[in-house]
Design a protein that fits this description.
The protein is of the alpha/beta class. The protein has 19 helices and five strands. α1 links the parallel β1 (about 5-10) and β2 (about 30-40). The longest helix is centred in the first third of the chain and has 21 residues, at about 50-70. Its cofactor is (6R)-5,10-methylene-5,6,7,8-tetrahydrofolate; FAD. This is Deoxyribodipyrimidine photolyase-class I. Keywords: Chromophore, FAD, Flavoprotein, Lyase.
Length: about 425
């Protein structure tokens, strides 16, 4: 049996500053052994050059270096199934308590229940904390205790509760001296667990005042640099939600603040309705007779539909792991309504490609586009891909950036007629919902 330690388990919180669970671990008495597990249950099936895995590995090396330079400590990095890793840890160390921050996705909840049960059987305490959201679970609900399923009243209640709740911060960085002094901890390279370095970088976020002040004016125009690129950093916790919200509150414009609340709205929906990962929130929408034409899905994925804004978005996604939010709505609507392809196909493709993939928001927004979710667009609201160009990329700067052959004979013809596809969609949806 090794040294007596407590463990902090990094997951979606890859930072030393303002980290709730890390702060609690560092103040709990025993020296803290920090760990990260590349979960094989999550990694299996991902492409070998997945940019998110490269980003995670690079970020962990940064944290490891900081710990080594400042405290003579380090970070233990593992690959495998979490329960098996904890069995290994419990045999190598005298573990008193395990600390981590909560995750709300269905797989994570099941994993944590399994790990927590085993630890309890070994006499090891397992503590989880709220860190990736301001409010979780039932903290913002209707007066009768039911969850909100429409954004605007949720947002208003969220702000009301927030005004009565001090915005806490956690001085985890100031307690790093309580990390265990140990430099020889496992640190596998990407190749050791079957991955290779991706050529797609995760860009830094921009939370500057000018961007936030002008966010409402710029956010709908994909050719402008008007978005924060904050998504991957909130997803993996390289910035805390409290720091991000603090920046948003410095502006008199509440639009950016409202976008952060959208994220929490979808997270509480996923918590209360985990079935929506695979089922329509509005169950009658699972009666839709999707066409699910694989050749048409392939054209959509590759950006060869003949609808320029749709194609530009898909090509941006494939090349960079990012797509502008306005264009995400259009590409999703086009797949579900023009092509009558199941929203779950599109959701899975975005999950594979997006650097900022977060299950709650991705599922929530895809169901919104299909009309089947909470706070959904009515099924008869069908974006016109041509007028969307006129509104949001009138000079076609974004289109030409991503479709160099646009306007030449090399660019494909439109794969469907908008009017005919719209009428087919309305007929199909009506037949399912009446």
């Amino acid at each position: 049996m090794g040294k007596s330690v407590n463990i902090f388990w990094f997951r979606r919180d890859l930072r030393l500053e303002d980290n709730r669970g890390l702060c609690e671990a560092l103040g709990a008495g025993r020296p803290v052994l920090p760990i990260f597990i590349f979960d094989s249950e999550i990694l299996d099936g991902l492409p070998a050059d997945d940019p998110r895995v490269t980003f995670l590995h690079d970020r962990l090396q940064e944290l490891r270096s900081r710990m080594q330079e400042n405290q003579g400590s380090s970070l233990a990095i593992y690959h495998g199934k979490p329960l098996e890793i904890f069995k290994e840890l419990a045999s190598d160390w005298d573990v008193g308590q395990v600390f981590t921050n909560r995750d709300y996705e269905p797989y994570a909840r099941d994993r944590d229940e399994q790990v927590g049960q085993w630890l309890s059987e070994q006499g090891i305490e397992f503590h989880t904390f709220k860190d990736q959201v301001i409010f979780e679970k039932d903290e913002v609900v209707k007066d009768d205790g039911d969850p909100y399923v429409v954004y605007t009243p949720y947002m208003k209640k969220w702000k009301q509760v927030f005004r009565d709740t001090p915005l806490a911060t956690f001085d985890s960085a100031g307690q790093l001296g309580n990390l265990i002094a140990h430099s020889r901890l496992p640190n596998p390279d990407l190749a050791d667990f079957g991955f290779e370095r991706s050529a797609i970088p995760v860009p830094d976020y921009d939370m500057g005042g000018k961007l936030i002040d002008a966010y409402e004016d710029n956010r709908n125009y994909p050719a402008r640099e008007g978005t924060s690129r904050l998504g991957p950093h909130l997803r993996f916790g390289t910035i805390s939600i409290r720091q991000a919200l603090g920046k948003a509150l410095e502006s008199s414009n509440e639009t950016f603040w409202n976008e952060l609340i959208w994220r929490e709205f979808f997270m509480q929906i996923l918590w209360h309705f985990p079935r929506t990962v695979h089922e329509a929130f509005r169950k009658e929408y699972d009666r839709i007779a999707w066409r699910n034409d694989e050749s048409e899905f392939e054209k959509w994925r590759e950006g060869r539909t003949g609808f320029a804004l749709v194609d530009a978005g898909m090509r941006q996604l494939n090349a960079s792991g990012y797509m502008h939010n306005r264009v995400r709505m259009l590409t999703a609507s086009f797949l579900c309504k023009h092509l009558l392809i199941d929203w779950r196909w599109g959701e899975a493709y975005f999950a594979e490609k997006l650097l900022d993939y977060e299950m709650a928001s991705n599922v929530g927004n895809w169901q919104w586009a299909a009309g089947s979710g909470v706070d959904a667009a009515p099924y008869f609201r069908i974006f016109n891909p041509m007028t969307q160009v006129d509104k949001f990329d009138k000079d076609k700067s974004y289109i030409r950036e991503w479709i160099p052959e646009y306007g030449t004979e090399d660019y494909p013809e439109k794969m469907v007629d908008h009017k005919a596809a719209r009428e087919r969609c309305l007929k199909t949806y009506k037949a399912a919902l009446d």
